[in-house]
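Provenance and format

Records in this collection were gathered into a single text stream. Each protein contributes a sequence line and a C-alpha coordinate line. The two records reproduced below are adjacent in the stream.
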Amino acid sequence: KVTRQAEQGAIQGEVTLTPIQRWFFDYNFEATSHYNQSVMIHHKDRLEEKPLSEALTKLVEHHDALRMVFLPVEQVAGYQAWNQAIEDNALYHLEHHDFREWADPSAVIEATATQIQSSMSLENGPLVRLGWFQCADGDHLLIAIHHLVVDGISWRILLEDFASAYEQAVAGKEIELPQKTDSFQLWADQLSTYAKSEALSQ
Protein backbone atom coordinates (compact mmCIF):
# COMPACT_ATOMS: atom_id res chain seq x y z
CA LYS A 1 0.00 0.00 0.00
CA VAL A 2 1.36 3.44 -0.94
CA THR A 3 1.09 5.91 1.92
CA ARG A 4 3.57 8.57 0.77
CA GLN A 5 2.09 11.75 -0.72
CA ALA A 6 3.97 14.19 -2.92
CA GLU A 7 4.09 17.89 -2.08
CA GLN A 8 0.78 19.41 -3.27
CA GLY A 9 1.70 23.09 -2.99
CA ALA A 10 3.13 25.25 -5.77
CA ILE A 11 6.82 24.53 -6.35
CA GLN A 12 9.15 27.48 -6.86
CA GLY A 13 12.85 28.22 -6.75
CA GLU A 14 16.04 26.86 -8.29
CA VAL A 15 15.87 23.58 -10.20
CA THR A 16 18.88 21.41 -10.97
CA LEU A 17 19.45 20.94 -14.69
CA THR A 18 18.99 17.34 -15.80
CA PRO A 19 21.59 15.72 -18.07
CA ILE A 20 19.44 16.19 -21.18
CA GLN A 21 18.90 19.85 -20.33
CA ARG A 22 22.65 20.30 -19.91
CA TRP A 23 23.18 18.64 -23.29
CA PHE A 24 20.70 21.08 -24.83
CA PHE A 25 22.63 24.13 -23.63
CA ASP A 26 26.04 22.59 -24.40
CA TYR A 27 24.94 21.89 -27.98
CA ASN A 28 24.64 25.63 -28.72
CA PHE A 29 21.57 25.52 -30.91
CA GLU A 30 21.19 28.51 -33.20
CA ALA A 31 17.60 29.22 -32.05
CA THR A 32 17.32 27.85 -28.52
CA SER A 33 13.90 29.40 -27.95
CA HIS A 34 12.40 27.71 -31.02
CA TYR A 35 12.80 24.12 -29.89
CA ASN A 36 9.33 23.11 -28.86
CA GLN A 37 6.67 20.46 -29.20
CA SER A 38 3.12 21.32 -30.17
CA VAL A 39 -0.33 19.89 -30.78
CA MET A 40 -3.33 21.35 -32.60
CA ILE A 41 -6.70 20.46 -31.09
CA HIS A 42 -9.88 20.76 -33.15
CA HIS A 43 -13.22 21.49 -31.45
CA LYS A 44 -16.12 21.30 -33.92
CA ASP A 45 -18.19 23.48 -31.61
CA ARG A 46 -16.92 26.80 -30.28
CA LEU A 47 -14.54 27.01 -27.36
CA GLU A 48 -15.73 29.22 -24.54
CA GLU A 49 -13.33 31.96 -23.48
CA LYS A 50 -13.84 31.93 -19.70
CA PRO A 51 -13.69 28.13 -19.26
CA LEU A 52 -10.67 28.02 -21.59
CA SER A 53 -8.85 30.62 -19.50
CA GLU A 54 -9.75 28.85 -16.26
CA ALA A 55 -8.61 25.47 -17.58
CA LEU A 56 -5.27 26.79 -18.88
CA THR A 57 -4.58 28.67 -15.65
CA LYS A 58 -5.29 25.57 -13.57
CA LEU A 59 -3.11 23.42 -15.84
CA VAL A 60 -0.04 25.64 -15.48
CA GLU A 61 -0.58 26.12 -11.76
CA HIS A 62 -0.89 22.35 -11.27
CA HIS A 63 2.08 21.31 -13.43
CA ASP A 64 4.93 23.31 -11.90
CA ALA A 65 7.52 22.54 -14.61
CA LEU A 66 5.44 24.54 -17.10
CA ARG A 67 6.38 27.68 -15.13
CA MET A 68 10.11 27.15 -15.49
CA VAL A 69 12.50 29.65 -17.07
CA PHE A 70 16.20 29.28 -17.82
CA LEU A 71 18.53 32.08 -16.79
CA PRO A 72 22.06 32.59 -18.16
CA VAL A 73 24.78 32.43 -15.51
CA GLU A 74 27.94 34.24 -16.66
CA GLN A 75 30.19 32.84 -13.92
CA VAL A 76 29.87 29.31 -15.25
CA ALA A 77 29.00 30.15 -18.86
CA GLY A 78 25.85 28.13 -18.51
CA TYR A 79 22.21 28.26 -17.46
CA GLN A 80 20.21 27.92 -14.29
CA ALA A 81 16.66 26.58 -14.24
CA TRP A 82 14.18 28.45 -12.09
CA ASN A 83 10.62 27.48 -11.21
CA GLN A 84 8.60 30.68 -11.10
CA ALA A 85 5.96 31.26 -8.46
CA ILE A 86 2.38 31.37 -9.71
CA GLU A 87 2.15 35.12 -9.18
CA ASP A 88 5.59 35.98 -10.61
CA ASN A 89 4.74 36.22 -14.29
CA ALA A 90 2.20 35.37 -16.96
CA LEU A 91 1.41 31.66 -16.71
CA TYR A 92 0.89 31.29 -20.44
CA HIS A 93 0.45 33.36 -23.60
CA LEU A 94 -2.75 32.99 -25.66
CA GLU A 95 -3.47 34.63 -29.01
CA HIS A 96 -7.01 34.71 -30.42
CA HIS A 97 -7.65 34.94 -34.18
CA ASP A 98 -11.06 34.98 -35.85
CA PHE A 99 -11.06 33.42 -39.33
CA ARG A 100 -14.73 32.42 -39.43
CA GLU A 101 -15.33 34.46 -42.59
CA TRP A 102 -12.27 33.14 -44.42
CA ALA A 103 -12.69 30.53 -47.16
CA ASP A 104 -9.24 29.01 -46.54
CA PRO A 105 -7.16 30.42 -43.67
CA SER A 106 -4.69 27.49 -43.62
CA ALA A 107 -1.70 29.50 -44.86
CA VAL A 108 -2.12 32.35 -42.38
CA ILE A 109 -2.77 29.88 -39.55
CA GLU A 110 0.45 28.04 -40.40
CA ALA A 111 2.41 31.31 -40.47
CA THR A 112 0.87 32.48 -37.19
CA ALA A 113 1.55 29.11 -35.54
CA THR A 114 5.21 29.35 -36.57
CA GLN A 115 5.43 32.86 -35.14
CA ILE A 116 3.87 31.74 -31.85
CA GLN A 117 6.28 28.83 -31.52
CA SER A 118 9.36 30.91 -32.35
CA SER A 119 8.49 33.75 -29.95
CA MET A 120 9.29 31.94 -26.72
CA SER A 121 11.90 33.38 -24.38
CA LEU A 122 13.79 30.90 -22.22
CA GLU A 123 14.82 33.69 -19.87
CA ASN A 124 11.49 35.49 -19.49
CA GLY A 125 8.87 32.85 -20.29
CA PRO A 126 6.19 31.79 -20.46
CA LEU A 127 7.21 28.56 -22.19
CA VAL A 128 3.57 27.68 -22.82
CA ARG A 129 2.14 29.58 -25.79
CA LEU A 130 -1.17 29.04 -27.51
CA GLY A 131 -3.07 30.12 -30.60
CA TRP A 132 -6.88 29.99 -30.66
CA PHE A 133 -8.10 30.02 -34.24
CA GLN A 134 -11.83 30.31 -34.87
CA CYS A 135 -12.67 28.94 -38.33
CA ALA A 136 -15.73 27.98 -40.35
CA ASP A 137 -15.27 24.31 -39.43
CA GLY A 138 -14.96 24.97 -35.69
CA ASP A 139 -12.21 26.13 -33.36
CA HIS A 140 -8.57 25.04 -33.51
CA LEU A 141 -6.30 25.40 -30.47
CA LEU A 142 -2.53 25.29 -30.90
CA ILE A 143 -0.67 24.38 -27.71
CA ALA A 144 3.11 24.88 -27.99
CA ILE A 145 5.46 24.12 -25.09
CA HIS A 146 9.25 24.31 -25.07
CA HIS A 147 10.87 20.88 -25.21
CA LEU A 148 12.95 21.68 -22.11
CA VAL A 149 9.80 21.30 -19.98
CA VAL A 150 7.71 18.74 -21.88
CA ASP A 151 8.12 15.36 -23.56
CA GLY A 152 5.92 12.76 -25.22
CA ILE A 153 4.82 11.11 -21.98
CA SER A 154 4.02 14.47 -20.39
CA TRP A 155 1.72 15.41 -23.28
CA ARG A 156 -0.64 12.54 -22.54
CA ILE A 157 -1.05 13.68 -18.95
CA LEU A 158 -1.35 17.37 -19.89
CA LEU A 159 -4.00 16.79 -22.55
CA GLU A 160 -6.06 14.57 -20.25
CA ASP A 161 -5.87 17.18 -17.48
CA PHE A 162 -6.69 20.00 -19.89
CA ALA A 163 -9.76 18.20 -21.26
CA SER A 164 -10.97 17.41 -17.75
CA ALA A 165 -10.37 20.96 -16.51
CA TYR A 166 -12.16 22.51 -19.49
CA GLU A 167 -15.18 20.22 -19.13
CA GLN A 168 -15.42 21.03 -15.42
CA ALA A 169 -15.15 24.77 -16.12
CA VAL A 170 -17.84 24.63 -18.84
CA ALA A 171 -20.12 22.87 -16.35
CA GLY A 172 -19.51 25.68 -13.85
CA LYS A 173 -17.67 23.41 -11.42
CA GLU A 174 -14.56 24.16 -9.42
CA ILE A 175 -11.70 22.53 -11.30
CA GLU A 176 -10.16 19.55 -9.54
CA LEU A 177 -7.25 17.64 -11.05
CA PRO A 178 -5.60 14.42 -9.82
CA GLN A 179 -3.10 14.82 -7.00
CA LYS A 180 0.39 15.86 -7.99
CA THR A 181 3.16 13.32 -8.25
CA ASP A 182 6.73 14.27 -7.30
CA SER A 183 7.84 17.59 -8.77
CA PHE A 184 10.35 17.99 -11.58
CA GLN A 185 12.46 19.90 -9.04
CA LEU A 186 12.68 16.84 -6.77
CA TRP A 187 13.24 14.49 -9.70
CA ALA A 188 16.14 16.60 -11.00
CA ASP A 189 17.75 16.76 -7.54
CA GLN A 190 17.51 12.99 -7.03
CA LEU A 191 18.77 12.30 -10.55
CA SER A 192 21.80 14.49 -9.89
CA THR A 193 22.47 12.74 -6.59
CA TYR A 194 22.21 9.31 -8.20
CA ALA A 195 24.57 10.37 -11.02
CA LYS A 196 27.28 10.97 -8.39
CA SER A 197 26.52 7.87 -6.33
CA GLU A 198 28.60 4.76 -5.71
CA ALA A 199 25.64 2.66 -6.86
CA LEU A 200 25.86 4.10 -10.36
CA SER A 201 29.65 3.86 -10.58
CA GLN A 202 29.43 0.15 -9.75
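Adjacent record:
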Amino acid sequence: LWLNFMTDGLPALALGMEPAEKDVMKRPPRAPNEHVLSGEWGRLIFAGLWAYAVAFAFYVWELSKGVSVEEARTATLTLAIFIELGMAFTTRSRRPIWEIGFFTNKWLVGAAANPLALHILLVFTKFGKIIHFVPLTLAEWLETAGIALVGFFIFECLKLIPERRRRS
Protein backbone atom coordinates (compact mmCIF):
# COMPACT_ATOMS: atom_id res chain seq x y z
CA LEU A 1 0.00 0.00 0.00
CA TRP A 2 2.82 2.39 0.84
CA LEU A 3 4.41 1.86 -2.59
CA ASN A 4 1.12 2.64 -4.34
CA PHE A 5 0.52 5.64 -2.13
CA MET A 6 4.01 6.99 -2.85
CA THR A 7 4.18 6.40 -6.58
CA ASP A 8 0.71 6.35 -8.13
CA GLY A 9 -1.39 9.36 -7.20
CA LEU A 10 0.64 12.54 -7.55
CA PRO A 11 2.95 11.35 -10.36
CA ALA A 12 -0.06 10.17 -12.40
CA LEU A 13 -1.74 13.54 -12.02
CA ALA A 14 1.49 15.33 -12.89
CA LEU A 15 1.91 13.29 -16.07
CA GLY A 16 -1.41 14.77 -17.18
CA MET A 17 0.27 18.19 -16.95
CA GLU A 18 3.06 17.20 -19.34
CA PRO A 19 3.64 19.99 -21.87
CA ALA A 20 2.85 19.08 -25.47
CA GLU A 21 5.85 18.16 -27.57
CA LYS A 22 6.82 20.78 -30.15
CA ASP A 23 6.19 18.58 -33.18
CA VAL A 24 2.97 16.96 -31.98
CA MET A 25 0.87 18.63 -34.71
CA LYS A 26 3.33 17.55 -37.43
CA ARG A 27 2.96 13.88 -36.63
CA PRO A 28 0.48 11.83 -38.62
CA PRO A 29 -2.55 10.68 -36.64
CA ARG A 30 -2.76 7.18 -35.26
CA ALA A 31 -4.91 4.77 -37.20
CA PRO A 32 -8.40 4.52 -35.64
CA ASN A 33 -7.93 0.82 -34.93
CA GLU A 34 -4.43 1.27 -33.45
CA HIS A 35 -4.08 0.89 -29.69
CA VAL A 36 -2.85 3.89 -27.67
CA LEU A 37 0.12 1.84 -26.46
CA SER A 38 0.93 0.45 -29.88
CA GLY A 39 4.67 -0.05 -30.15
CA GLU A 40 5.11 0.31 -26.40
CA TRP A 41 4.00 -3.11 -25.15
CA GLY A 42 7.44 -4.69 -25.39
CA ARG A 43 9.04 -1.87 -23.46
CA LEU A 44 6.30 -1.92 -20.81
CA ILE A 45 6.53 -5.67 -20.30
CA PHE A 46 10.33 -5.48 -20.14
CA ALA A 47 10.13 -2.61 -17.62
CA GLY A 48 7.75 -4.52 -15.36
CA LEU A 49 9.78 -7.71 -15.48
CA TRP A 50 13.03 -5.79 -14.95
CA ALA A 51 11.63 -3.93 -11.93
CA TYR A 52 10.27 -7.12 -10.37
CA ALA A 53 13.46 -9.11 -10.99
CA VAL A 54 15.74 -6.36 -9.70
CA ALA A 55 13.68 -5.76 -6.57
CA PHE A 56 13.47 -9.49 -5.80
CA ALA A 57 17.19 -10.03 -6.43
CA PHE A 58 18.00 -6.99 -4.30
CA TYR A 59 15.87 -8.29 -1.43
CA VAL A 60 17.54 -11.71 -1.56
CA TRP A 61 20.97 -10.06 -1.79
CA GLU A 62 20.21 -7.85 1.23
CA LEU A 63 19.19 -10.90 3.26
CA SER A 64 22.30 -12.79 2.15
CA LYS A 65 24.42 -9.96 3.59
CA GLY A 66 22.93 -10.74 6.98
CA VAL A 67 20.74 -7.67 7.44
CA SER A 68 17.44 -7.97 9.27
CA VAL A 69 14.24 -8.69 7.39
CA GLU A 70 12.98 -5.21 8.34
CA GLU A 71 16.08 -3.56 6.89
CA ALA A 72 15.91 -5.66 3.72
CA ARG A 73 12.23 -4.77 3.31
CA THR A 74 12.82 -1.07 3.92
CA ALA A 75 15.70 -0.97 1.43
CA THR A 76 13.76 -2.96 -1.17
CA LEU A 77 10.70 -0.75 -0.80
CA THR A 78 12.94 2.30 -1.15
CA LEU A 79 14.42 0.79 -4.31
CA ALA A 80 10.91 0.12 -5.67
CA ILE A 81 9.90 3.72 -4.97
CA PHE A 82 12.98 5.01 -6.79
CA ILE A 83 12.27 2.69 -9.73
CA GLU A 84 8.60 3.73 -9.92
CA LEU A 85 9.41 7.43 -9.77
CA GLY A 86 12.08 6.94 -12.44
CA MET A 87 9.50 5.17 -14.59
CA ALA A 88 7.20 8.18 -14.26
CA PHE A 89 9.94 10.34 -15.75
CA THR A 90 10.87 7.90 -18.50
CA THR A 91 7.26 7.37 -19.64
CA ARG A 92 6.72 11.07 -20.26
CA SER A 93 7.62 10.79 -23.91
CA ARG A 94 8.80 8.39 -26.58
CA ARG A 95 11.79 10.70 -26.89
CA PRO A 96 14.79 10.42 -24.56
CA ILE A 97 14.83 12.68 -21.53
CA TRP A 98 17.88 14.58 -22.80
CA GLU A 99 15.78 15.75 -25.77
CA ILE A 100 12.70 16.86 -23.84
CA GLY A 101 14.47 18.04 -20.69
CA PHE A 102 14.27 16.61 -17.20
CA PHE A 103 12.69 19.68 -15.58
CA THR A 104 10.19 20.66 -18.30
CA ASN A 105 7.33 19.22 -16.27
CA LYS A 106 7.69 21.03 -12.96
CA TRP A 107 4.54 19.30 -11.68
CA LEU A 108 6.19 15.90 -12.08
CA VAL A 109 9.36 17.07 -10.34
CA GLY A 110 7.24 18.17 -7.38
CA ALA A 111 5.10 15.05 -7.56
CA ALA A 112 8.24 12.92 -7.29
CA ALA A 113 9.93 15.05 -4.63
CA ASN A 114 6.95 15.13 -2.25
CA PRO A 115 6.41 11.37 -1.90
CA LEU A 116 10.16 10.82 -1.70
CA ALA A 117 10.43 13.37 1.11
CA LEU A 118 7.49 11.73 2.87
CA HIS A 119 9.13 8.31 2.54
CA ILE A 120 12.41 9.65 3.95
CA LEU A 121 10.50 11.24 6.81
CA LEU A 122 8.68 8.00 7.57
CA VAL A 123 11.85 5.91 7.45
CA PHE A 124 13.61 8.17 9.95
CA THR A 125 10.78 8.83 12.42
CA LYS A 126 8.84 6.78 14.95
CA PHE A 127 5.89 6.61 12.53
CA GLY A 128 7.93 4.24 10.38
CA LYS A 129 8.04 1.73 13.20
CA ILE A 130 4.28 1.23 12.78
CA ILE A 131 4.93 -0.45 9.42
CA HIS A 132 8.28 -1.88 10.54
CA PHE A 133 10.57 0.50 8.65
CA VAL A 134 14.11 0.90 9.92
CA PRO A 135 16.48 3.77 9.17
CA LEU A 136 18.78 3.15 6.22
CA THR A 137 22.40 4.21 5.99
CA LEU A 138 23.57 6.76 3.45
CA ALA A 139 25.26 3.91 1.57
CA GLU A 140 21.93 2.06 1.31
CA TRP A 141 20.16 5.18 0.03
CA LEU A 142 22.86 5.70 -2.58
CA GLU A 143 22.84 2.01 -3.50
CA THR A 144 19.07 1.93 -4.09
CA ALA A 145 19.11 5.22 -5.99
CA GLY A 146 22.03 4.00 -8.12
CA ILE A 147 20.32 0.75 -9.06
CA ALA A 148 17.14 2.62 -10.01
CA LEU A 149 19.20 5.11 -12.01
CA VAL A 150 20.76 2.29 -14.02
CA GLY A 151 17.26 1.10 -14.92
CA PHE A 152 16.22 4.64 -15.80
CA PHE A 153 19.09 4.97 -18.27
CA ILE A 154 18.39 1.53 -19.75
CA PHE A 155 14.79 2.54 -20.46
CA GLU A 156 15.86 5.89 -21.85
CA CYS A 157 18.35 4.20 -24.20
CA LEU A 158 15.70 1.70 -25.31
CA LYS A 159 13.80 4.66 -26.74
CA LEU A 160 16.59 5.07 -29.29
CA ILE A 161 15.96 1.67 -30.89
CA PRO A 162 12.61 2.47 -32.54
CA GLU A 163 13.91 5.90 -33.58
CA ARG A 164 16.71 4.31 -35.54
CA ARG A 165 14.30 1.92 -37.25
CA ARG A 166 12.02 4.78 -38.33
CA ARG A 167 14.91 6.80 -39.71
CA SER A 168 16.32 4.00 -41.85
